[in-house]
Amino acid sequence: MRKKHSALRLAAWLAMAATTVTAGAAGPSAYIPHDASGADIWCGSVSDNGKWALSETAGDENADNPQAVGGTLIEVATGQAITIGAGVDGVASVGDVTDDGMLVVGAYEGIPATWSRSTESWTTLPLPSGYNYGALLYVTPDGSRAMGYAGKSSDVYAARPILYDLSTRQLIDLTNLPYFGMNGKTYTQNAPKNISADGKTFVGMVAESFMMDRVKDDDAEEEEYLESGAVMWAYVYDIEAQTYTPSAGPSTPTTSSPNCTPTPISSTTFT
Hints:
- The protein is mainly beta.
- 3% of the residues lie in helices and 37% in strands.
- The protein is built from one helix and 18 strands.
- Strand 13 and strand 14 form a beta hairpin.
């Protein structure tokens, strides 16, 4: 399983925070944490073979809902930087890049999308029924499959993994996804954390935003809440078998655990 995001990715980009990338330079130089216009950039991703890197340009940090406004694709060997433009409304985010650097996945105007280096344009993908925004976060090295999440405006915490066959640009069915926490309660949040290079397995996390269950402290003079136990948990999903296995741990939820009965939601059922 690849691990291109999180601490390793952050360390790689921080190590390059000194000078700007010069297009067409003889070798790669470091990348500063802002672009030529002064806009901040966010840590990006690196292709599996390490030949291509991504950065993402931040939007107005003072806005109520700051969003990315495009990014940059960088050829590591030469330092050549290719601008990835934003949408009509100036909104586009980048998530991952293929080994040949020809395809970037992310979101265009809040919809899962791919960006082609050959055409320098975005193409959006269909969302599952009941969801109205999302983004792609990962792509297989050969560009055959891409994975991300879908969300809904009616529930800010709702999320579900989405997987695409990029040869047909259609969703791949994902059934039997877990939507229960360690405390046995049902949650609407289930997000992918990465996909294997062969596109057959992914890692997911349930109720990541909740982390710990909270209960009201009736003995407190003012309204206070106490943490009562773990909620979120990770799993490994077999895409071909449409089954998941909880990650190893001392308190992994199982179907036989007290107050922790799985509530799978079919990919064709969205409530």
